[in-house]
């Protein structure tokens, strides 16, 4: 993987990332999020049931899980006139990873011009990244920035755009603190997407592993899937909806049910759990 500076994410986010990155984003470093904080004293208890295999939890966030968009042939313009750059290591959000193929591609447009195109890079852990070197000029003010992502398995182009933003020279976003943007807003059967973080109240309580799964449910409908200690998206239609949380622990083959119910009308919810 590319080694890119990682400490610039938080100050950039604090000023709404005046590159195209202001569109939407979340960091895997929960200490920088706003909202409830994980704390042992406020941890939620869990009950469990034994299972013989990992549950097949799925979030069907689209009415149809396939579209008919052809793979785009985005062409980068002549970049010789642009003296500035912004470099990003963009991590694909977890909901889209199961549908990622080698046909995936992301392009960045500034005022309608394609400034960079990147194929996916797949890590040994199964994460998907795109390396984006966006060229521009410091004289470009009030520009429209747009990210377009083509999903090879879904055959669909997802687009996020933001106007009236300035191009910022020589910003570099890194990988030690993952940078992810919400590519699904406006593209799903759900009106809203909130960010959840579920983690053990004290390290080592559950002997967690990469095979563990966290899922958020409204009734019996799965609305979001992630892992302990990582932020993930939870989808909803009504501000009044409340959700329950389940956690599959692979080392014990147990499904833990968290004792509380949680409103989906917050932008960020952190939940600490204990056995």
Task: Report on this structure.
The two termini are 36 Å apart. The strands form four sheets. Strands 2, 12, 13, 14, 15, 16, 17, 18 and 19 form a nine-stranded mixed sheet that branches. A four-stranded mixed sheet has the order 6-7-3-10, with no helix packed on it. The protein has one helix spanning 9-14; strands spanning 26-27, 44-50, 84-91, 105-110, 113-119, 121-122, 128-136, 143-151, 156-165, 171-173, 179-180, 192-200, 213-218, 221-226, 231-236, 242-249, 254-258, 262-263, 268-274. The longest helix has 6 residues, at 9-14. The protein contains one helix and 19 strands. The protein has 275 residues and is mainly β. Mean pLDDT is 79; it is low at 1-41.
Question: What characteristics describe this protein?
Answer:
mainly beta, 4-stranded mixed β-sheet, 1 helix, elongated, disordered N terminus
Secondary structure topology:
Layout: H1 9-14, E1 26-27, E2 44-50, E3 84-91, E4 105-110, E5 113-119, E6 121-122, E7 128-136, E8 143-151, E9 156-165, E10 171-173, E11 179-180, E12 192-200, E13 213-218, E14 221-226, E15 231-236, E16 242-249, E17 254-258, E18 262-263, E19 268-274
Parallel strand pairs: 2-19, 3-10, 12-19
Antiparallel strand pairs: 1-11, 2-17, 3-7, 4-5, 4-8, 6-7, 8-9, 12-15, 13-14, 13-16, 16-17, 16-18
């Amino acid at each position: 993987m590319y080694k890119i500076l990682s400490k610039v994410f938080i100050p950039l986010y604090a000023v709404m990332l005046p590159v195209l990155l202001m569109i939407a984003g979340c960091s895997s470093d929960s200490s920088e999020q706003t909202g409830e904080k994980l704390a042992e004293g406020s941890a939620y208890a869990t009950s469990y049931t034994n299972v013989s295999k990992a549950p097949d939890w799925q979030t069907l966030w689209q009415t149809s899980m396939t579209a008919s968009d052809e793979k785009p042939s985005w062409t980068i313009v002549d970049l010789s006139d642009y003296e500035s750059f912004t470099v990003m290591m963009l991590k694909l959000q977890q909901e889209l990873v199961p549908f990622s193929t080698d046909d995936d591609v992301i392009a960045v447009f500034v005022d309608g011009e394609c400034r960079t195109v990147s194929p996916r890079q797949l890590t040994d852990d199964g994460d998907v990244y795109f390396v984006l070197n966006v060229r521009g000029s410091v004289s470009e003010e009030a520009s429209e920035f747009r990210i377009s992502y083509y999903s090879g398995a879904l055959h669909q182009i997802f687009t996020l755009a933001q106007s009236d933003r300035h191009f910022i020279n020589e910003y570099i976003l890194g990988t030690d603190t993952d940078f992810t943007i919400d590519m699904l807003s406006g593209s799903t059967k759900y009106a809203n997407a909130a960010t959840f973080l579920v983690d053990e109240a004290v390290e080592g309580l559950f002997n967690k592993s990469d095979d563990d799964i966290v899922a958020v449910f409204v009734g019996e409908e799965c609305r979001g899937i992630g892992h302990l200690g990582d932020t993930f998206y939870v989808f909803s239609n009504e501000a009044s909806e409340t959700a329950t949380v389940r956690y599959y622990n692979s080392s014990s083959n147990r499904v833990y049910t968290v004792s509380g119910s949680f409103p989906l009308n917050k932008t960020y919810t952190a939940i600490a759990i204990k056995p």
